[in-house]
Amino acid sequence: MKGLILFLLVICFISGCDKKSDESEELIVSEEKTNDTNKANQKKLSWNSIANKVWIKETWSGGEIYEDISFVITRVKQGKLEGQFLESGIITPDSNLYSGKQNTNSGFSGSYNEHRAEIIFECGKNSKGKLYISPYKENLLIVDIQYAGEITNTFKFKPYNLNDLEKDNRAKFDNDVKDITLKKWGKIKFVSVVRTSTKRNTLFIYLTDCKRNILYDFSDSMAFPNDFKVNDFLFKDINDDGREDLVLILRGITDSELHEIIIYEQNEMGGFDVNLEKTQKTNLKMNEDKKYSIRDIVSYL
Questions:
Q1: In whole angstroms, how far apart are CA 257 and each of 48, 254, 280, 291?
Q2: Please, which residues bridge with residue 274 across strands?
Q3: Of 53, 95, 211, 262, which has the fewest CB atoms closer than 10 Å, so is most exposed?
Q4: In angstroms, rounded to a whole number, what is the distance separating the alpha carbons of residues 301 and 292?
Q5: pTM (2 d.p.)
Q6: What is the pLDDT along the chain (301 residues), one digit of tens a residue?
Q7: Which has the closest alpha carbon to 285: 271, 268, 299, 267?
Q8: Using the 8-state DSSP alphabet, how is residue 92 labeled?
Q9: Is 244 in contact with 183 (CB distance < 8 Å)?
Q10: C-alpha span between 289 and 222 (Å, rounded)
């Protein structure tokens, strides 16, 4: 009897060891699967979706345009990227940004992989810094900012959006939105915004993506006359360089007999520069003939 009990104890001991061994193996396999899952779920940056948006701090309130930094990535190619950085304010995505013209922004360049980018920027003649960009969720980035010799600060950045314009309680906005497709910009929206104050109506024109994120701003390239809105427009290659240019017809808000034409030519980077000579000649011809349709305007060019 004692021999039988001893035999059973040995069997139980061996079975227990095997069970612990199996549990250990299961734990190792489980950890390996978790690691594989984490790698699979690690967020990847789609640089086509990051580029050309104006990125501002998530905490930006809309009350003061100079309270925070901003940046735009303008070129992405083969692991390298370029863009511009504004240390105090919201960078304007206009022909100054997309033509290589001199401006108040700081240029930057860097490298990237599918998960992160490292960018070197200049602030002033003798000071440099770095941006480390990682995804957080859709339309939100984690950005580590490190100035030379200082600690790294981490912020969340969001795209600058038409909704940010509408946070200004001092003005009302009358929007007109049209879907268009351009070779450089893809499928986007042409947005004209009339900002109404107590004394005058001010026109702003943007290109945005489908989520109203601002990609391009026409407003600073040429001062639009007060109390005008967009009557019609056409993107068409008018100088035979293979790029779509913009023919813009404005009409008076309070006086519908007033019209003004602005001719923009698109450059290699996708920016739109006003052709003053064509603009002046076309305005003279249009007002002489009193013909204000797109078809008429194009026939003058």
A1: 43, 9, 18, 11
A2: 264
A3: 211
A4: 14
A5: 0.80
A6: 545 444 444 444 444 544 444 443 343 333 343 344 344 445 666 777 889 999 999 887 665 555 678 999 999 888 899 999 888 888 999 999 998 777 778 888 999 988 899 998 876 666 678 889 998 888 899 999 888 778 888 999 999 999 888 776 566 778 899 999 999 999 999 999 988 866 778 899 999 999 999 999 998 767 788 899 999 999 999 999 999 999 999 999 988 889 999 999 999 999 999 999 999 999 999 989 988 889 888 888 8
A7: 299
A8: P
A9: yes
A10: 25
Termini Cα distance of the chain: 113
* CA-CA-CA-CA torsion sign (208, 296, 291, 261): positive
What's the token pair of residue 262? 């602005």
Instruction: Find out whether 72 and 93 touch, Cβ atoms under 8 Å.
Output: yes
Q: Are 258 and 283 in contact (CB under 8 A)?
A: no
d(CA 102, CA 71): 16
Nearest to 164 by CA among 43, 65, 271: 65
Find all residues with CB under 8 Å of 55, minimum gap 6, and list them: 70, 71, 72, 141, 143, 157, 158, 159, 160
Q: Read off the DSSP letter of residue 66.
A: T
**Residue 132 to residue 145: CA distance in whole angstroms:** 7
Name which of 161, 138, 267 is nearest 215 in CA terms. 161
Residues in the chain: 301
